[in-house]
Amino acid sequence: MTECTARQLEFQGCGRRQVRGGFDGGMLSSDGGALLLREVEARTRIIARLARCFVDHRDPQLLEHSVEELLAQRVLGLALGYEDLNDHDELRGDHLLAVAMGKADPSGARRRAGHDAGKPLASSSTLNRLELTPPEASAASRYKKIVADAEAMDRLLIEAFIEAHEAAPKEVWLDLDATDDPLHGRQQGRFFHGYYGHYCYLPLYIFCADWLVASRLRRADQDASKGTLRHLEVLVERVRSRWPKVNIVLRADSGFARDYIMSWCEDWQVDYVIGLAKNSRLKARIVEPMAKARAAFEESGEAARVFTEFRYETLDSWSKTRRVVAKSEYLWGDKENPRFVVTSLAKEQYHARTLYEDIYCARGDAENRIREQLELFADQMSTHWTKSNQLRQYLSGLAYVFICLLRRAAEGVGWQGLRPTTIRLRLLKIGAQVQVTARRVWLRMASSCPWQQQFHAVLRRITGN
Predict the structure, then answer these.
(1) DSSP string covering 13-78, please?
(2) Interval 215-242: pLDDT, tens
(3) What is the mean pLDDT of residues 346-375?
(4) Cα-based distances in Å from 408 to 22, 365, 432, 459
């Protein structure tokens, strides 16, 4: 049996040797790679600009943690895998994380209160005030005095996306998707969604490849496309102001096949490829192609597809006829699998099969990007208020942006398409000894780290040295 005492740990022996240990190794951290995140921040100033999205009504003479420092602690913590505010009650004594945040006193030796000595970072209660401040708070409020501007944070995500490109792209493909964030309490605005089968929020995400350009929490008792135009108007206007000649294409599933969205795209010269829910009128247009698909299946014994296209208009909800591409597919088990896509792209640009298989189906990658948001804890909707849960989603989104920048640097050293969890394990979760002196901070990282060469290369790509 393993024995544990306050001073010594005793383990199973190794041959004739006794194995003993204790928590007396000095200031050690499991997050040696956090300084890579500091280098990313030094070059992008994302957290510094995020801090400008808040109004701080606190008394400056009483502050020990600025808004920028509080946000850095929370965002870097999420990137490092610490999902809960309670984690920060232990992390507040981590000198390495304090260095990664740029704290002037990384050892916490100069804290005002004696019980805070040696703890340079904010506690969970201080961070909680940041997240729970109501929009009407002022200097007269008692505790919660840091007010967030959600629209400013929306613009920050767009600016970070634009700045990530060294040159103007020829095309920008915007993938829209909605998903469910399950709720397990009685949060404000909760609603039982019949499709997902539980109480949830229905957040909207917009991606360009793997880059997050919009993240908005919404109630689940509304259409999946609710609020889309407000984000598209800001996004398209800003992108066009920086890249006037760029071609913008919108992709989405049938939840976004709404006339007001397609009409707006046509007015703003934004192309679209959107899934279209099947109905009896649409299926009647592909009776002959479906018969051909069935005949091909019966002849070959393999699933068969036949692609066609036609002009289509709903009975009363569309304002004009539009191009619709149809996939007539016959599968095993005597099963028909028709699918439809409405698009503004001309036949001369993309014929039916290419438009469906190569263009529309690529939209499914947005679902992978949403799963990656969950690796940064974007689904942690544990506060009562919708606004504070929205702020948590923003912070997770910014942590994801940091991980994306690390991923792009890692691609230059041969690591292609790494998931956030893999990046965290390979580049961030590195054991390190931290020593803070009057003039230097010494960081001695684990000699047995298997990714040392890649770590050096990623750091060089971030810093340009």
Answers:
(1) EETTEEEEE-S-S-SEES-TTHHHHHHHHHHH-HHHHHHTTEEE-S-GGG-SS-HHHHHHHHHHHH
(2) 999 999 999 999 999 999 999 999 999 9
(3) 94
(4) 40, 17, 24, 12
Distance CA 355, CA 323 (A): 12
Sketch out the chain's domains with CATH numbers. Answer: 28-146+413-463 (no CATH), 151-375 (3.90.350.10)
pLDDT tens-digit series, residues 48-88: 999 999 999 999 998 999 999 999 999 999 999 999 999 99
How far is it, in rounded angstroms, from Cα 272 to Cα 84? 39
For the range 141-144, what are the long-range contacts, defined as Cβ-Cβ under 8 Å and sequence gap of 24 or more?
141/57
The pairs formed by 433-440 with CB atoms below 8 angstroms and a separation of 24 or more are 433/25, 433/26, 433/27, 433/28, 433/29, 434/27, 434/28, 434/29, 434/95, 434/96, 434/99, 435/26, 435/27, 436/27, 436/95, 436/99, 436/106, 436/107
Angle at which helices 452-463 and 386-411 cross, to 10°: 100
Distances (CA, A) of 93 to 8, 29, 76: 22, 10, 15
3-state helix, strand and coil shares in percent for the chain, rounded to the nearest 5? 40, 20, 40
What percent of the chain is predicted at pLDDT more than 70?
99
Q: Which residues pair with 325 in a beta bridge?
A: 309, 341
